[in-house]
Amino acid sequence: MFNLVGFKDQFDYLIQHYLNRNLHSSIIFHGPKGIGKKTFINKFVSEIISIDYKNESFLHHINLYKNNSHPNIKILERLIDQKNKKIKNNITIEQIRSINKFIKESPSINNLPKIIIIDSVDDLNINSANSFLKNLEEPSSNTFIFLISNHLSSLLPTIRSRCLKLKFNNHNYENYKKIINEQIKNISDDETNFLFDLTYGSPGISISLYEENILEIFEQTLNSLSVGYIDENCIELAEFTSKFDNDKFKSYLLLLKSILVIIKKIKNDNNVINSLISDRLKKLVNLSSILTSKNIIDRFDFLSNNEKDIFTYNLDKKLFMLKFLVS
To answer: 84: pLDDT confidence band, cut at 50, 70 and 90?
Structure first.
């Protein structure tokens, strides 16, 4: 029903505790972005349903869950802003209030627990996080809250302290390749190797980069990074990427960060290049000799410190890119 690759130990641990009726009421599933935390939860929730519904009604419950219409299960994600038709930057306090109400209501299906999934808890702002906190402080019986986090350290300490934390690491190459081959038909081994090195084994990020054709500007990006001043290539790259919607631009920023991290590792230890399985990424050796350590760090810091503002305040993406390229 939901195909899960890897993470067997975590899955067996949770199932055993659920069967023993001592599963923690609030769990943070944390680890790098795009490695399958939501897929894991989907599989876990389907297993919970199957424990009580082994007949034909199981498929009915699964279909309701897939469509986010199951009366006992609520999934919170960022909504689309009806004014500009773009995905909002945060999960709103109104969404949290709807969850607070859902928790207080009697369950629609008595022999199935209530389940709340927030994907991701990183998207709560300070107001929605504080509003949500009460649910962790006063857990309701037979109610489970599953929180997905890509950046555990960014969460409020009060949220972290009240949850069981379950860590997920990057996939090994075998599992990664299996997932990619299932999701991207006819992808070549060379492309698979390139994406594995570039994303540190994150299938979700790899699929985004591949499907959004961001890898087509990989070479142009390397050329722009190597110049150190604004030339026609840099202007062309900035203009091209400025037309990306927010989600595609976020994927491109992930590409930039990955490039910078790999360059810095090569600069610190040239043997790192031997661990790369993609010939295409070995071109970064030349770039590592051009850029100074300070320049690499400054550019990475620029992305980290300003990335959120560009989406919060709808800043000019072209200007952002030009500032990045000369930082």
So the answer is: confident
Phi, psi of 157 (to 5 degrees): -55, -35
**SS3 for 5?**
coil
Which residue carries 């990045």 as its tokens? 324
Are residues 144 and 114 in contact, defined by beta-carbon separation less than 8 angstroms?
A: yes
Three-state SS at 26: strand
Give me the pLDDT at residue 246, please: 85
Residues in Cβ contact with 282 at an 8 Å cutoff, skipping those fewer than 6 apart: 273, 276
pLDDT at 56: 66
Give the separation between CA 36 and CA 10, rounded to whole angstroms: 13
Closest CA to 263 of 282, 239, 241, 237: 282
* Residue 75, H or E segment: strand 73-76
Give the model confidence (pLDDT) of 193-212 as tens digits: 999 999 999 999 999 999 99
